[in-house]
Design goal:
The structure is a single chain. The chain folds into 2 domains: 50 residues, no CATH class; 36 residues, no CATH class. It is mostly beta strands. Helices cover 11% and strands 36% of the residues. It is globular and about 40 Å long.
Length: 87
């Protein structure tokens, strides 16, 4: 697919890899869990699809008003720096 590693973030128990290319604005995030001994089985892993929005709080409120019951907004920090907010 012509993707290159745009960013790599190492943590104690996992590594995040962000893949992208110059032809499109999308990124693919891969999570590599460290120390796993068994292969992944369907149903025991964490999967998600993420999109970027201009105003996360407003989007969270909008989805709640539609009755979709989004989870609370979480802040993901590393070394005191905000990396992401999501729900």
């Amino acid at each position: 697919f012509g993707l290159d590693v745009a960013e790599r973030l190492d943590f104690e128990t996992f590594t995040l890899l962000y893949l992208s290319n110059a032809e499109a604005e999308f990124e693919v995030e891969l999570t590599v869990n460290k120390g796993r001994q068994e292969p992944y089985a369907l149903g025991d892993s964490y999967g998600h699809l993420a999109v970027s929005v201009a105003d996360l709080d407003s989007e969270h409120d909008r989805l709640g008003a539609l009755g979709l019951n989004p989870k609370k907004i979480v802040e993901f920090n590393r070394g005191g720096a905000l990396l992401a907010r999501f729900f």
